[in-house]
Amino acid sequence: MKNKLFMFVAMLASVLSLASCSSDEIEGVDSNQAVAGKGVSITVALKPESRAVYTDNGTNLKATFEKDVDYITVFFRKGTSPLGKYKLTCTGVSSMGGTFTSNSGELTAEVLKHIMTGGELTDLHMILASAKSKPDFYEKFNNDLSVQDGTLEDATAHMQRVTNHDMTKAENYEWDDANARLTVKNVNFNSNPELCTSILKVKAVFPAGTELVKGETPIDLYGENAYSKYTCGWGKASGATITNGTVPFTKAKVAEVQENADGTKTAIAYVCFWPTTAKPLELLNVNSKIGDVDYTGEYTVEHVTMSGEEDVSTLKGAKLYTMPITLAGSKTITQWMKDGESSIEVAGATLESSEATWLTFEGGRIHVAANATGAPRTGEIDLKAGGIILKYVITQLEPNDFKGTYSYTTKVFAGTGAITGASDPYTFEGLIFGEPRTSAELTDANGTKHTNNIGITGLYGTAVLDACLEIDYENCSAKFGVFLDARDGQNQQVNGKYVAFVPALVTRKAKDWGKPWMFYETELGDPDYTWAWYTVTKDLSQIIYYNRTNNNVEFSSVPQYSSNTMNQIAGIDVVLSSTDVFTHATVSGYAQVYQVNAKGKVGSYFMRTGNASGAKTNANGITAAGYTIK
Question: Which of 471, 470, 472, 330 is nearest to 393 (CA)?
Answer without folding.
Answer: 330
